[in-house]
What we know:
The chain is of the alpha/beta class. The chain has three domains: 33-204, Galactose-binding domain-like (Jelly Rolls); 208-298, Sandwich (Immunoglobulin-like), CATH 2.60.40; 303-600, Alpha-Beta Barrel (TIM Barrel), CATH 3.20.20.80. It is built from seven helices and 33 strands. Helix 2 (333-345) packs across helix 3 (360-369) and helix 4 packs parallel to helix 5. It is globular. The structure holds (2S,3S,4S,5R)-3,4,5-trihydroxy-6-oxo-oxane-2-carboxylic acid. Residues 188, 355, 418-419, 477, 507, 552, 572, 574 line the site of (2S,3S,4S,5R)-3,4,5-trihydroxy-6-oxo-oxane-2-carboxylic acid.
Amino acid sequence: MKYLLTTALLAMVGVLSGTAAEAEPLITNVPGRYAVSLDGKWRSIVDPFENGYYDYRLNPTDMLYAQDRDNDDPTRLQEYDFEQARDIDVPGDWNTQRPELYYYEGTIWYRKRFSPEFHPAKRQFIHFGAANYEAIVWLNGERLGSHTGGFTPFNFEVTGKLREGENSLVVKVDNKRHPEGVPTVNADWWNYGGLTRPVTLIETPATFIRDYSVQLSPTEKNTIVCQVQADGPAAADVLLEIPELKISHRHALAPDGMAEFAIKTKPERWSPANPKLYDVRLIAGTDTITDRIGFRTIRTDGTKILLNDEEIFCRGISIHEERPYDSGRAWSDEHAETLLSWAKDMGCNFVRLAHYPHNENMVRMAERMGLMVWSEIPVYWTIHWDNPETYTNASNQLNEMITRDRNRCNIIIWSIANETPRSDSRLKFLANLASEARTLDGGVRLIGAAMEKDEVSPGVMSVNDPLEDILDIISFNEYIGWYDGTPEKCDRSEWTFKTRKPVFISEWGGGALYGMHGDATHRFTEEYQEDLYRHHTRMLDRIPGLAGCTPWILKDFRSPRRHLPRIQDDFNRKGLISDKGQRKKAFYVMKEWYDKKAAEVPDK
Ligand code: GCB
């Protein structure tokens, strides 16, 4: 079964149609390619009325700000001037760059002039790590396309469109929320706008390897399955090299540029205890792409999750993509390393990257550090289940997440939703997404979603969601002791499940302001949160089939829903670490429980 999608197939499944995306098929492994960074200072114009895009009759036009004209002729009426506009940093959210943009939701124009060295005989692409939420892109006044969805990459081919000397790249980024969007208007995280991840100019030979998958087969023992999608007129075959495994294998490319083959080999398995990665090289014609790839299997057996056929307990923590110490969107290797090393200090072998795909270096850093990952799309709360455009949008984000990261062996769970209200149309929507995820992924990962718990009779907890039948694990959020009673309720709660699948608690928690001390019955004290974690961890010991958990959350994060002065001040305080990096008492309760768990079910 082919799971890399060709351009024709993408058009068939509607990924390239509709309003969700006009972008082209993704180029994967940007860090492994010849690329020039377009990061740094860009010019910016804040445009709440979208004056640069709509004329006074509200007709969209490419002839205004997109043209990036110099304001050098005083006889001509021009009401913008990028040259004199303020700088803005890319990558980065705009909200934390200027105080007046803190709450801003709307359009900001980004403009970069650059003079790249490029080879006219080669192909060039402009790649965006992410733009929240909608982006329209113009090069030298010509519209390249648009993209919807704030957390996944997109690219446009610019071969033949770059000029010798100076070029102008203009991007209209709009982070307005929409009821039919993914996410919708209501979410518990800050709506950070902007070009939040790196922008890169990629150069490739005329024929190049656009996408590939090199994975251990989930069904054939000791077999690496490889799929390659070459793009361009000229390569007859592809060569796969994994020097450490003495693999050098050549395979013909079909007329559509695809190759699919399997190789018998016995690689050392990647695991949290041994995060072994191999140098992998793929060569087609004059194109060479290198990657570091790990090999592992993941499956379930009854209530157990088996990594490389051995039981593993997922000692996890949920994380938002926010910078350590000062909040705002995280994007760098340093941000990733700090956040993930805090998780490791807590004894974690797993992270839930909530509630949207995090940046690529976060996933890669976790892979190097031996952290398994739950990766999620922002199908959150009350999505418009009956709207076909909403489905196209969600499906597109799922496609882009999986395409970007399908070679990351540390991702073991794709999550398709968080706390979505039950209905027939929601079930249909999510069942379709689950089946798309399985096809795209080639079945090498588990499919989960954060469901919700039910109190089926007083003190008896379960999950009564038909979605459970579609997922590989019974994963759910519960807030006993915070939104649901007080921490003692944990002691009175018994758990029962109707199917035999691994049980995974994807959230629980409660708020505490770092440094606020008092009686353990007082909300928002560190003692309340500590007590809640003590009761919770005791309850976890009694939950049948528990295979992992990711309490909510590693670090306090900004949320527009949290208004309590002097305690919340626009932060969700459920972090085990404060926004400034200080560890709260509950951090140590979790660490103690994870140390115990690691002794009971050691990482192999
Ligand atoms: C949840 C959501 C999460 C919120 C959290 C809370 O159930 O999944 O996004 O931030 O509760 O703190 O209320």
